[in-house]
Design a protein that fits this description.
2 copies of one chain form a homodimer. Chain A is of the alpha+beta class. Chain A starts with about 25 loop residues before the first helix and ends in a 13-residue tail after the last helix. The interface between A and B is medium-sized, with 33 and 33 residues. β10 of chain A pairs antiparallel with β10 of chain B, so a sheet runs across the interface.
């Protein structure tokens, strides 16, 4: 894949043997409390926005330790389906796929908590949106991960710009290197290789943020090579509180990033053509989540709560053999412009 | 998972170092010709059965070598969507996932040909059906694989029995051990672990059949243990022609196994309740194909023709959070009886 920006991404190598910054005694309580509060706030505002329906909660327990509260809205006025999940789990060992990235966690008990959200609006003019923020502790290491990304059907460049700028502001209040790095990582992660398409217009994505200054640990070979060639001194010494504050800013940026888009598109009239294309494009969401998404596959293969994991799947979906958008149509424009990584923050009509 | 029958499955260990039986000079032509003929015959009969629509062909070439002909029916009277694909490809090396089972093929060029089919009927009373037969040659080894399985929505035990008995007859004309072994392997393979459900009522499934007498190479640990404890002398010396004839019988059994079911259910009236449940259950088909199916995942990850691979996905699908069938309903009966491995060949109302 090509990336929109030629701007080099900074990669920060932790000093060899540098320990993960120390934790406050109440780290788990603080993150868990923040994430539950975020779930509460998001559900409240989305229910007000929808007007017709609210979220129904299922609390669940996990046999191996922990549990969660899944909240679903069905058949709303704006949201055909929406799920906002909180979970907090612990156990004896992390799976091998995570230990590859954090070998220091091997042989240790773990704690993990997170919030994840997917909204499938009814109108093809309102984009689907996804958010996830998560936190791990295991033996000597801890880290935060997450992000948010937008998937339009009949897209507006100003919506993509608004979404990205809002997340950029949240990141910039902590360091100017965060947004460009996490934006690129998002473009790389939410990519359907078998379709050679981005999932949508992206947003931000990050993982393994532990204050040691390694901003990027993504799949791009260029990125991996650069990982050992760049450092930013002041980012290599962030405390646990610094990283948690970054995650709080990103989480709190979700509603201002998304709600105005839903509001300004909700009244646009649409017909069967738009609806059919939306259902077809939702198929890509299913393909991404079941074929590529690490969280989904990991959850399904390790005895997670299936109904909560697959809450991300759309309520109604279409597949059509060999569909091709008509040249110069709005549908073609989605593929040609919006499903390729773009510099949305600086987008202008002349770009 | 539990298996319906306590009957021990026979497993046959090839003699150490025993070479794969020799090939006729025209092996590839003969298999390819048979599979193309099977595709032709199936498409012809299904189009006659449907009455309203026929199959449209896309011929395609593969850059690395070979190609195929994909045939799709859309919006038929009986078949909402159906795909019947033939492909014949070659290249420099097989992927690692296959070499694990056939290390003798490492470092050799390969040839692979196959037919695959998935039909999604419009009526919830007609089951979805899948067929695949395939053939590989690579260096010193060759083998056949494939099978057929049935996925009902509102099921009839007599349909499951008819489908299984027809495939059993095809297998029995070659050896009585084939059907029970391949039936069990099918139940193991078409299983959704995250749902703890069978995909449907099964059928037959086999792989790595090369005349050396190893009938079973499935995932069940009990099966793997038994693999080294049982032999049937007369099956350990099958020629290439013997195995090819078995595959031909199985392939030719497809139409008599499936068509009578579609015929006798096509006129049953149904309403929105049935249709909604069908669309919901089709979600399981998507989950299986994208999360578990080796052929689909392998194809998507190795630059296969995406549109032909994903032709197996249903035209319209629903997901619903936390759906549970009503007790004692026809929907509950599907889960309780039909989505568990059963001895369909010997099924009676009293079973």
């Amino acid at each position: 894949m090509t990336l929109a920006s030629d701007r080099p991404v900074l990669h920060l190598t932790p000093l060899p043997g540098s320990p993960t910054p120390s934790l406050p005694a109440d780290s788990r309580q603080r993150v868990s409390q923040f994430l539950q509060g975020l779930q509460d706030q998001i559900c409240k505002v989305l229910a007000e926005l929808d007007g017709a329906k609210s979220f129904q909660e299922d609390a669940w327990q996990r046999e191996e330790g922990g549990g969660g509260r899944s909240r679903v809205m069905k058949d709303g006025a704006i949201f055909e389906q929406g799920g906002v999940n909180f979970s907090e789990v612990w156990g004896t060992h992390l799976p091998p796929s995570i230990l590859v990235q954090r070998p220091e966690a091997a042989g240790h008990r773990f704690y993990a908590t997170g919030v994840s959200l997917v909204l499938h609006p009814r109108s093809p003019y309102i984009p689907t949106v996804h958010l996830n923020y998560r936190y791990f502790e295991a033996g000597p290491v801890w880290w935060f991960g997450g992000g948010a990304d937008l998937t339009p059907y009949y897209p507006f460049a100003e919506d993509a710009t608004h979404f990205h700028r809002t997340l950029q502001q949240a990141c910039n209040s902590h360091h100017s290197e965060y947004y460009p790095t996490f934006k690129r990582w998002c473009d790389e992660y939410f990519y359907l290789k078998h379709r050679q398409e981005a999932r949508g217009v992206g947003g931000i994505f990050f993982d393994y943020q532990d204050g040691r200054g390694e901003l990027y640990r993504g799949p791009d070979p260029q990125g991996a090579a650069a990982l050992h060639s760049a450092q930013v001194g002041d980012l290599a010494q962030r405390s646990w509180d610094d990283v948690f504050e970054l995650v709080q800013s990103c989480g709190q940026a979700f509603l201002p990033a998304y709600v105005p888009i839903a509001q300004r598109r909700q009244a646009l009239p649409y017909d069967d053509r738009h609806r059919n294309f939306q259902l077809y494009r939702r198929g890509r969401y299913v393909e991404f989540n079941l074929v590529y998404d690490r969280g989904t596959i990991f959850g399904l293969q390790t005895n997670g709560r299936t109904e909560s994991i697959l809450m991300s799947l759309p309520p109604l979906v279409r597949w059509e053999y060999n569909y091709q958008p008509e040249p110069d149509s709005p549908e073609a424009k989605l593929y040609e412009i919006f499903l390729k990584p773009q510099d949305w923050v600086n987008w202008t009509a002349d770009t």
